[in-house]
Each structure stands twice: as structure tokens, then as C-alpha cells.
Amino acid sequence: MKIVQIQKQSLIEYPGKISAVIFLAGCPLRCPWCYVPRLVLPERIKELKPIPEKEIFSFLKERKGFLDAASITGGEPTLNPELPEFMKKHRCHDVVCIEYNKLTLEQEFEAWFKYVMGW
Q1: Of the four listed, 14, 53, 61, 81, which is most buried by Cβ atoms within 10 Å?
Q2: For residue range 92-105, what is the model confidence (pLDDT) as tens digits?
Q3: Which CATH number do you get for residue 92?
């Protein structure tokens, strides 16, 4: 999973919550209005330095009590097969919000959710 950016604080990604925003690279769409083309276009993704998962968890642990949640976005985060495991690990820290474009089938997303929540 290629984590390429973290916004340390946001008041808009998760309404009513103070959240960090974790950006993952990659998306099959080429929307003309996309506000993060550097996370979508393969030639631009190559230029991005990945952020180690350990660094993300360390940051979130430091901010526990200040941040209410973490929002995971992209690109298209559900393209990453490691996402459910990442979310499951993160679940013990804070609330997780995922922003995706619904290219992932609802049944598949529901299965991920059940896995992450331990249902």
C-alpha cells in the first residue's frame, strides 16, 4: 500500500470530527476535476516518496486525544488490497472514515467492513 501524504489536521473530511487525512496513491479514473492528480497519474505517482505505515501509526498515537478520527482517501483507496488490514490495525487507535468512489463493489466493501470490525 503506497501511503504518500498525510494531512495532519482537517475539519472538513469527517464532518463534526477533527481528523488526520491519509492519502493513498492510485486511481483508475481520470476525472477532469480531480484535485489530487499527483495521486492518480502513474508518471506523477513515481515521483512521490512513500510514507512508512509505522510512521503513520506513530503520528496517530502521538495525536490521540486531539484527533477524533483518521480519514483514508486517495486516489482510490479501495484499490489497495492491504487496506482492510491497515484499517483493522488502525481501528484500535481512532475512528476510521474512508472516502472512496464506489468502484469497489458494495458486497466486497461490506466484507471488508465486517473483517475490520471483527463481525
Answers
A1: 14
A2: 555 666 776 666 66
A3: 3.30.750
